[in-house]
Every structure is written in structure tokens, then in C-alpha cells.
Amino acid sequence: EKGGYDYFMLKEIAEQPKAVADTLLGRIDASGLLTLDEVRIPAAVLREVDKVVIVACGTAYHAGMIAKLAIEHWTRIPCETELASEFRYRDPILDQRTLVIAISQSGETMDTLMALRHAREQGAKVLAVCNTNGSTIPRESDAVLYTHAGPEVAVASTKAFLTQLVACYLVALYLGQVRGTKWGDEIEAVIRELSDIAGAVDTVLETMEPVRRLARSLADKDTVLFLGRHVGYPVALEGALKLKELAYMHAEGFAAGELKHGPIALIEEDLPVVVVVPSPRGRSVLHDKIVSNIQEIRARGARTIVIAEEGDEAVVPYADHLIRIPATPTLLQPLVATVPLQVFACELATARGNEVDQPRNLAKSVTVE
Ligand code: F6R
């Protein structure tokens, strides 16, 4: 049932292009408009939404952090993303005009369930983004957008994460479409690129051998740091989470701009630091900033592992290891940038002799608070 792979995780990483394509299937019509009728929240209600709050845990929370950036950019509706386990304990401000999005692969995560119950008690509308048909979270929500990743068996989430991102982009674009905000060339181009993104994920998967080699060479390290900015920051957090849960290594993700406010003191000779570089097109200021971050850490002896878009030459002089990913629109980059980090963590875990599909102390769905 592992389809020839040694681990479910490897199989599920390989299934990502299909999972992404399946999650888009039937949701974009021939004219490039989104057809999310299955989200049965009336357009009139969506037009009244004045705040979006996303609740989720772990990997799904990282998808939510990226969704926040997409929603605010494409709809101009204020959006916040919160750890589901923290949410209801701070007496959050919610009302009928708040749209709460609960993201959960299993649909059974107790922290997320309790957060959405609290939101509904306050009168907010809840949309679930979920991979498991008929599970508790969609049943208790006002609406659901299913991700079509298929069953995810490995404890570490991979294909579910990519499909959560796709579903969140669709929600963000749909909100923009319904409300008519910023609906223009950029959005149409993004929808076209989204339709092609499965191919880009495939391209990344085909070029992973050097990443595996690199991972094996780092098997005796104690610490790996991950840096990113904008959508690259949640990707860095996700890379660090994968490494913690699979390789049992000390791994931390930082917003690269925060380095100088403390974490740079951690940098020492030969410390592996993975940097997720935004596209040099689009937000070029951000790109320049991160290039100088890479220079700073390299000057202090870090071993830089740079994930950068094809054709980005500015990073070359400062990259000890360079991992290329296809060019995508800025907001979609996590769909390709996360894949090498999954492969990296899986390979490191294997090299360290860990059980990849069943990491110690973890369960696939966390049904206690
Ligand atoms: C990490 C991982 C967990 C889950 C989290 C939420 O690889 O799998 O962090 O993402 O427990 O689970 P769901 O999405 O089922 O609510």
C-alpha cells in the first residue's frame, strides 16, 4: 500500500502534484472564474464580512499564516491567524460579520474544534478547510471546502499542507471575486498560474537528489535554523517543524528581519541555515533585504542553504548550497518552496535512523486539548 515507497511520507510527498491538481479540479471554470458554490455561505453574507480570523494548529497553522497574506492582499479584508489552542482563552472579538476559517487535515483536532465552537457561539460564520469527509470540524461548521489530498497516513503532514494552501488561495480569490475588490489582471494571472502549479511541484520533485545528499551530510548536526520573510516566514517555520518532529533535531524558524534583534547571536561556524528567498521580481525590496541577511550570516560562518527561484543570480555568491525552485507569483511560492524542506527532513530522519511515518510521542490526529 506504500506504492513501492519505503515510507508513506515519501509516497505522500510524491503525490503532491496530483493532490494539488485534485484540489483545484472543478473549482475554476473555463473563463477563469472561481466556482465555489459548494461553499454555501451566500455571496451577500460574504460581501458583509469585515474581518477574517483563521484558526488552526501545527502545519495547518502555517498554511493559515500564508492564507492571511493572500486574503489581505487580494481582498483588503483585515485577517488574523491564531493558534487554535490560544484562541478562545483571550476572549477574541467576533461577531456576525466575522468569517472564521478553521483549517484541519483530520477534521478531529480538539483545539481547532473548541476554537470554532467558541466562534460560532459569538455569532461568527465558520468555514472549514478540511481533508476528511464527514469529520467533526466540517460537521460543526457553517460551510466546508474540502481539500482533495486523499488519505494522509504519515504523521508528518505534507500533501495535506499543499492542498490547504490551494484551498486557502481559492477562498481568498473567491472572496475577492464576490466582493469585486482588486479584481483585475493580477488576479486573473494568479488563477492561471495556480492552474499550472501542479507541474511546478512536479519539477521540484524531480530535482531533489542533491537535497537528499545534503541532508545525509548533516545527519550529525544538532541545530538547523530556517529563515524567511513574508510568505517565506511560515515556510521557514514549517521546515523547522518537519525537522523537529521527524529528525528530533533542534530547529527554529525566524523571520529574517528579526535576526539582528537577537537570533544572530546563535550563528556560529558551520551552522546550517536554510534561507527561503522571495522572488526577485514582484517584491524586489524584500528580495534585496534577504540577500543582505544571507551575507550577514555567512560572514559569521554559517553554512547557507539557499532556496531561490530559477534565474535568481544575486544569491549565487552567498549560497554554500543552492536549491532551485520554479518561478511563481510571490504569494504562491510556498507551494514549491516547502517541498525541498519536506524531502530534507524526511531524509535526515532516515539518516538518523528514526521512524519516519511514526515519529516518537506523536499521533496523527490530536483529539485532546
Ligand atoms: C505536523 C502535523 C501537525 C498537524 C496538526 C493539525 O506535520 O501534522 O502539526 O498539522 O496537529 O492537524 P489537523 O490538520 O489534522 O488539524
Give a structural overview.
Its main location: cytoplasm. Catalyzes the first step in hexosamine metabolism, converting fructose-6P into glucosamine-6P using glutamine as a nitrogen source. One of its GO terms (cellular component) is cytosol. The protein has helices spanning 8-14, 16-24, 43-48, 58-75, 84-87, 110-121, 136-139, 159-179, 185-206, 209-217, 232-247, 284-299, 334-351, and strands at 51-56, 79-83, 98-104, 125-130, 143-146, 223-228, 250-255, 272-276, 303-309, 321-325. With 369 residues, it is of the alpha/beta class. The strands form two sheets. It has a five-stranded parallel sheet with strand order 2-1-3-4-5, with helices on both faces. Strands 7-6-8-9-10 form a five-stranded parallel sheet, sandwiched between helices. Helix 12 (284-299) links the parallel strand 8 (272-276) and strand 9. Helix 4 runs parallel beside helix 8, helix 4 packs antiparallel against helix 11 (232-247) and helix 11 (232-247) runs parallel beside helix 13. The chain binds fructose -6-phosphate. Fructose -6-phosphate binds at residues 57-60, 104-106, 109, 112, 156-157, 241, 245, 365-366. Fructose -6-phosphate (F6R) is lined by residues 57-60, 104-106, 109, 112, 156-157, 241, 245, 365-366.
